[in-house]
Every structure is written in structure tokens, then in C-alpha cells.
Records
---
Amino acid sequence: MSRGAAPRIAEALLKAYAVGGVVAVLALATAAWAGTLTVDQRNLKFSVKELRVAKGDSVEFLNHDDTSHNITITGQGFTANSGLQAPGQPFKTPFAKTGVYKVSCGIHPNMRMTVIVE
Amino acid sequence: MLGLVDMMGAHAPRRALRPGRRLLLAAWLAALACAVLWASPAAALPSFAQQTGEPCAACHVGAYGGQLKPYGRDFKLFGYVSGDGKNTLPPIAAIVSSSYTETATDRTPLPHYAANDNAAITNVLLAYAGKVGWGVGAFAEVTYDSVRDKYAVSRVDIRRAFTGSVAGKDVVYGVDVNNRPGLQDLWNSTPVFEFSTFTSAFAGSPAASALIDGKLSGRVAGVGGFAMWDDQLYTEFAAYGQLDRNFLARQGLATPATADRYQGTIPYWRLALQHDFSDKHYLEVGAYGVQAKRFPADVQTFGTDTITDVGLDTTYQYIGSKRHFVAAHATWIHEDDKLDASHLTAKTATSDHLDVLRADAIYSFNDTWTPAVELFKTTGSNDPKFFRTANGSPNSDGYVVELMFTPWGKKDTVRWANARLYTRYVGYTRFNGKTAGASDNNTFLVGLSAAFAPFGGFVKR
């Protein structure tokens, strides 16, 4: 190793740490800003008919019924399905794009709501 | 009037159960009990349960077909297609029904049966009930009536529902094809699915009934459109036409040369308002009607009669408890008969009318024990040629007391089979215009109905 190589490596490592730190801080900040909102399912109804969230937020669907649900979310080219959501089991999904999303239960067709991502 | 206790043999002023009959009834009850115990795993049509993963009790009061709970109405409204996505097998179901019937007095025996005290496997039913594809769902039954040795396409209801928005509110709308006006209805306060479906071929029934009260059943086919706006206002209109007679004959429906023929289109309409109050009380009030032009006895040279039925109905359900379910229904049907053709061909009056009033109350404990009671009353004008009763009066009234036991069809039981034991007593205080001898038609019935979805056991959840 030449005599000038060590400082260059140290400098490169410092830059890498600096960039990584900034990225990590940004990521943590983004995570902190992106919230999780909760929607309950009780008496075969969603707790709200319409929910407005910010881009990047997640929505957690709780099941306080004594029967399973099957949440389906469609909109903006995005689809999500909870599978069979047993009583007490939560289902959480992020909303990454702005727009209107339709949420329904495959088993209980009158359970319908809308998530609006702004 | 014979009471239920009398019919059971405790006090029998007119007709006690003879020892042989007691033995027959005891043997029948023992056979029913064995059948139930043998069928021990359990879940209306279990093919619906196969598709949804939900037990019968999720949709039906008393966990076995008939009376619909809110989810059952939604499942039907949305076209029988909802499910948890786990079922990939055909939604086929079979029901075998058997009963023991005793009437207060002996009746003209049906071929191969006795004048009274008849035990029989009454019918075997095969159904396609569930998702068809492309958003279409169906509830279609073929029934073999083993008492009369006849096959029939008994009930067919094919639906396609869509969702949208009108005036900022959700609307569920769709198209429906069926073979009986009212079959597509969501409530149990209109004739097709009203009260209990447990009847007996060995029992008598009043001669007069309204057109919408079953006279068109299976003899017509129609298509209609429906819409439920904001989960509150339901509207529907359908148009029916009579099916080809040869086709009907092949289905086992009696179509003698003199049977009435219905001309042209038969319109049917329905309007209903529903609301649930704080998830505890549910109330529906509605109206419905049908009108048909009829060639009496298929004589087509004297014009037609015009029969117009208008009905009002209401449903109440207590939905605030998992253990206790209470429901009450009532309907009033007014029939207006303009008998232009019958007056010329059969010397009837130029017009008649009929009013039918029925009300029932039902309680279900744990969806297992379900007692129910119904009062019924039919009144009308006097016309021996039209109503075909001895004194010309169509008036009949009485009551029904019923107890149903459904051991399965609940959350913790399997979804591919279910069974119901029931006992029913029909008492008449007036029968075909007469009070004297009306109770001769009183009927005691005990029966077992068992339902299976042969593919249901193969669905993994």
C-alpha cells in the first residue's frame, strides 16, 4: 500500500458514513411521518364509511366480530387481500399512491368503505 | 277444536291415537332420532356455507334455511356470489325430507298411502346454490316428490348484482331471472319464504288462495331488475310469462286441458323500506303486487279474467343478541278478481275479492331451539262457482304452532351438512267457509330434513 492510500480510504469511508447517515435520518423521519390509522370491523360493518389518509400511511383493519372477514382493497392499480382474517387478527397495509381505494369484505358484501389517499 | 295436547293423545275427545298409531309414531320418532344422531357432524343449503365459510346460522334464523338474517339478505341481494375465496368446487347441495302426518279425521288416501297416519320420505331435492361465474349466482332446485312420484324444477333464482352510487349514496342493483313472483324477495314477510315451508301432502288446505300465494309457482318464468339504494330503499319490477304446457307437464306440474292459461305478460312489483336501529332492532315495511290476465279453463273465446293482487308486509327482527333472536312478520294481501270470462263460461259473479292476513312470531335460542306461531285469516266474497267451496265462502282461519330443533349449522360445526327436526300443528277455526267440522282438518306433523353439500367436506380453510 502506498503512503497516500490510507487517507483516501479513510476519506471514502467518512463520505460513505455521511451519506448513509443522511439516508438513515431521512428514512427514520419518513417512517415517523407515515402514520398508521385504524379501522374496526364490528357487527359486520366497518367503523367508518370513508377514511382520508396521507400518502405513505398505513391502515390497520381490526376484526372485533366473532366471524372471519376477507378484506379486499382495490384502486390505483393496487390490490390487496387479507386472506381469511380470523376474529382478533389484524390486517395492515400501506397506501403508497394518492387516489381512491375501494375496500370490501368478500364474505360480507354489504361491508364496503373507501380510503382516500391525499 | 282439537288442541295440540289432544292430538298427542293426552285428551282425545274425538280421536285418540290408537295403540298401533302410538307404536307407529314412536317408531317414527325413534327413526328420526337415530337419523339425526347418525348424521352427527353438521352445517339451509350447505353449499352456501361451503362457499362462504359461514355456518347456516350466519344467514338463517334457527340455523336451517328459510328465515333470513341481515347477512342472509345481503348475500342474496348481492347475487349469491360472496365467499371467502377458499371454495373451488361446485356448490351442490341435496336435501332429504321425511315426515309423519296425522290429521284429525281420515282423508281420501293418496295412492300407496293410508287414509291417515302416514310416514314417508316426502321429497329429495338437488340444488345448485352459489356462484356460477362472471358475477352471476344461482339458487336452483330440482325436486323429486316421492309421495306423488313426480319430478319438478321447483325453485330457480339466478341473479347478477352490481354496485354504484346514486345521489351520493351506495346503490346495489341488478338483474334477476326466476320462476315464481316473489322468489327473489329478500324478506320473509311475503308469500314464498314466509313463515315455515314445512307442509304435508297428506294434509288438507283451504281451497281459496291469492294468485301471488303460490298459484304461479313454477308455471311461469320472468326477468326483472332490482335496486337497493342506501341500504334502505328497495325497488323491483319484473315481467313473467307462462311456461309451455308440455314443459310443465314434464316437470310434474298438473296441466289438464282445462287448466287456466295466463295471457301475455304478468307484471310484478315490489317496494320496501328497511332500517336497523343501533344494531339492535331491524324493521322493514313494504308493498308488492302482481296482475295477470287469465283464460279460465283455457277457454279463449270469451275474453279474460283480470286478477290483481296488492300486498302490504312488515318484518321486525331483534338483532342485538347472539343467543336470542326474535322476529315477527305480517302480510295482508288483497285480491281483486274481475271475472269477465269466468262469468260467461262458468256462471261466476262478475267480480270477487279475497283478503288474506297472516302474522307470525318466531324466537330462536342459540339458533338451536326455535318455536314459532302463526295466525292466518282468509276472507272474501261469496261465490260457489269461483271459490269452489260448498257454501261459496272462501273464508278460512286458524293458527300454526311449530317447534324446530337444529343441533348443527353453527360456528363450531362443519359446513357440509345440517339437519332439522321439527313438529308442527295446524289448527283451523274455520275451513272453506264453515266453522262446524273445521277442526277435522287439523294436522299434526313431525319431520326431519337433512341437508348435505357433497363437496363441502373437501374445502380446506
---
Amino acid sequence: MKTKAILVDITQCVGCRSCEQACKEAHGLPPENEPVLSATALTVVEQRGDKFVRRMCMHCQDPACASACPVGALKKTAAGPVTYDAGKCMGCRYCMLACPFQVPRYEWTKLAPYVKKCDMCAGRLANGGLPACVQACPTGASLFGDRDDLLAEAEKRILENPAYVRHIYGSEEVGGTSVFFLSDVPFEKLGFVAAPINRSLPTLTANALADVPTVVLLGSSLLFGLYWITDRRKQVALDEAKEKFSPSHTDEKRS
Amino acid sequence: MPNLRFPKITLWRVLVTLIFATGLYATYARFLQGFAASTNLSDAVPWGLWVGLGTLCGVGLSAGGFAVAAAAYILGFERYRPVVRAAVLISFLGYLTVVVGMLYELGLPWRVWHPIFMWNRHSVLFEVAWCVMLYTTVLTLEFSPALLEKLPWKRAREWYLRWHHAILIELVLIGVVLSSLHQSFLGGLYLITEGKLYPLWYSPYIPSLFYLSAIPAGLAVTIMALYLSARSLNARFDISILGEISRLMAPLLAVYALFRGVDLVTLGVLPYMFRWRSETGLFWLEIALFVLVPLALLSSEQVRNNPQWLYWTCALVVMGFIANRLNVSVTGLQASAGVHYVPKWTEMASTIAILAAAVLAFRYAVLYLNIFPQPKERWMMKAATD
């Protein structure tokens, strides 16, 4: 199966919030509209000037959250969605610290809190369905399809209409995502993270982790060498002392 | 009872009772009411005081055990031997506070064992979890003779002590490697926050910075605890060992300062050091407390040879270290989070109560176990007075 993605064309969003409602219904969340992402609102439409910007998990190609999660509860699936296995999560919230888009939310008020974020309706996709938000969109502002096709479509729109900002948000950010945005207003003005790193964040830690075997091997050899020298010196000192004095003070010697 | 000698003990008892009463309430709030009632954490600030103080400082300030053990057993600093057990005890208790604190910090603490079976080798936190688990085991083993030598059964006791003696060097060695790994990986946790962590603290070399700062800070805690043991708990050891340890601490602080300075210059963030922002002030506070003032003080022979001066110098180092870790974990992330986080009093109270429990445990261990050389053991006294 080809990896899927969502394309949000901000120029076509009318702010009807059908996507929010559909999402809440699909995930069994309380139906009240909320102003920002929360543990009970996995996608929201924010108004910026006269524009409407939908927020949701960006489903990064190489997600920082998935690399950060110590128990592997978060996973990038081949189909595109970044999914969350609540059964593994132990609530460390490192994913929230790691996410460059500040997307994951936490159920702060619960006694057994879990992480909440958009899962691109992975369950519906597996059954050949569409993400609930895309299906509900009446204007076609949210599209769903193969990632490559959507990128091509976005490029086509930018080329055909000079009104668009000449950038597909999500094509390069943090090494690429599976949610793209097109806009006719600069992205910084719409509350998008101004300059996210244009390479995958997990590589930052991968390099450090790759050093582990070397550090362990070199470190322990070095330490053992030092210990050997120390021990040898002590032996020599002891032997010398033994020659000089009576051999009664040698009980400290290690076998 | 030595308690009776101090008239101020009643004041201390009131304080201790107060600490545990508030800690108990904070524990109730955390586990029976939840995060929202017991913390000021939010989606923008998922990690607060419990991680910054409880985990980052708890682990970092417990680095003395591995440093002193390595110095005594691997580098052959024989003069350190009389205080190795105390240093290991401090680290052991320190790691216990971290483990207990972790139960407050985790949203689902009953799943704290998950990393043992559910692996993600790409996660720095996974590596930290394993190292902390293993190293706490190593510390337990390193410290175990102090408890087991009190066993009434002679044969079991002697068998255990012989076995312990046979594996001691290996234990110390493994301890040094594990400590080196997770002390640096605690910094490595923040590698992934590029773009979020304020430039004065984000560095691709943050693992090395965490490692280099933890050793002098751990030694400072060790000196402080030794000083207090000698002053208030009648521990008998040659007090000049404090000056000896500080002689090791000063060059370590200097190396850290140099590394930090070169790092700031090569990253090109010098202009940030003089911007009119709250981060700048906290940065300089950290640098002054951890590096500048202690180095100036430690360069004086008078300070190094005066245990009380040394104690306060070490207190500065510890405060500077705490400032650094809180800057990385809290201050440095405020701007990108867009939320001002001030810990709720219950976050503070639970952390202080856990710490107080460790201090009390240390006190009772020194009073009732043979943590310091006993007058009867002549070979140890000899080592102490050489």
C-alpha cells in the first residue's frame, strides 16, 4: 500500500467546522467546539484574520514522538498515520516535549491519563475508508490520497495560481510530513511554527545513540587498563614492602 | 541518643513534621486527584519541576558515588577509601529518590516496568530508563555489605562479604560505564528539542555538558554530606579528605567551564548572553553559581583547607547545578512553549518530602551502620590517617 496523506488547502476552507464535528464523532469525544487542540479536540479550525487554519497531528515521515517514546507506543505506520498504542504508554510525556509542532495532548484531569492526538483515522483507513474530517469537508479544502499524488496536486495548484505562497507546508518541514498545507498568506502569519528544522529530528538523537557501543567498549577498556596499572603498582609496592619488612601486613592483597 | 545533645532538635522536628505533612498531602493530591489538581503542568509544559529537579538534579547530584568509587578503586586514590561507603550511600539514596519521584511524574506509574519488556532502541529515554534501573541495582549491590554485615549469621555474612569482595572491582567498573552513559543521556533527552530549547542551552554537545557538570556537582554533594556527618553525626574520618576531594573538583569545574565556553562561542550564541531577557539573567546566575564564584573560591588555599568554607562553596556549586538543570528543563523551553510555568506548591512539597526522607535515611544509616571507619578497624584508620 502506498503511504497516504492529507492536503489542506487553506484558501478553500470556509470555517464550517464540519471536520471538527466529524472527528469528535469518529473518536467518541464530547461534541462541543473547542478553540484549540485538547485531549477532547484532536483537530480544530482556528481563525486567523479572515483565514481558517485547521490544526492536527502532522504525521511526520520520521516522527520525533515515535523516536522519543521509550516503550514504542507511538509508531509511524507504512500507511501514513502515526498511531498511538495506549496499552504500552506509561505516561512519561516525552513525546509532548519532542513534538516540534506541539500537537500531543494529555488528559491532565484524569487519574489514568493518556496521550491524545489525531491518528488520521487509521482504523477507518485500514477498512478502505477516508479520515472522518476529510469525508466531512463540504468544500474539498481537505483532501486525502497517496502522498505522492497529493504533493503533485499541491505543486500543480501553486504553478497554476500565482496567489498561492510558493511553498507546500509539510513537504520539507522536519524532513517531511504526511499532512500538507497550501495557503495564500505567509505561513508564519497563520500561526505555523515559523522555522521548523528542515531535517528529521530523530537523526539528532540517532547519532548520539550510535556512539553508545563505542563509548561502552572504549570506556570499559580504558577503565580496566587504569585499574590494571593501579593494581600492578600496588602489587609492586607490596612486594617491595614485603622484602623490606616482615611479611605480616599483606592481608590487604587482593586475590 | 545523640539527639538529646542538641536543644534545637525540636525546631528540626517541627520542620521535618511539616515537610512530611505537606508531602503527604501532595501525594494524596497527585494520586487521588490527579495532575490537574497537583501540578501546574499543561500541554505546553509537559515536563516541570518533577523532571527538572527530581530527575535531572536527582541523578546528576548523585554522581558522587561513581566518581569517588572510581577514584578509590580504579585510579588508586587510596585516601578516598574511608569515604567511599558514604559516597556510595549518598548516590544510592539519591537514585532511590529519583525512582520514587518517577512514580509521581509518570502518568501511569503502575506501568513503570514497561521499558523492561517494551523496547524502543531509538529512544534516549529508553536508554536512560535501562541505565538507571541497572545502575540502581549496581548501587544496591555496592552498598549491600553495609547492611548485610549486620546479619547475625556468621557464615552467611562472611560468604556474602567474600563474594562481594570478589566482584567489587567489576561492580565499580560497570557502575562507571552506566553512570557515564545515563548522566550524558539525560542531556541527550534535549537533543530532540532543537528549535524549542533556548539557544543558550541547546547544544549538539549537551550530553557531554551534562556529563562534565554532573561529576563536580556530585562531588560537591559528597563533600557537603561528609562535612555534615562529621559535624553533626560524630562521623570519625580525617576531615582533610574534603580538601582533597575539592582539589579534584576544581579542575573538573574548569574543564566544564572551558567546554561550555568553547561550545557557546562555536555555536555563535554569544549575542544571546547580553540580550535584555529573563533567560539572560538566569543564564548568568547559573554560570556565576556553578562556575565563576566556586572557581574563584577554590583557587584559594584558605578555602580548600577550611571545611566550613568548603561546605558553602560546594553549596554554591550545587545551587548552580540546579540552576543549570532547571534552565534546560524549564526556563529554556518557556519562550517556545509560550506559557509561563511556575510549579504548584504540591509539586515542590512532594519533591522536598522525598528528599527529606533520603536525608533522614542517610542520618540513620550513619548512626546505626558502619558507614564511616569504626575505631576498632585499625586498617581503615591507618588508611585514613596515612
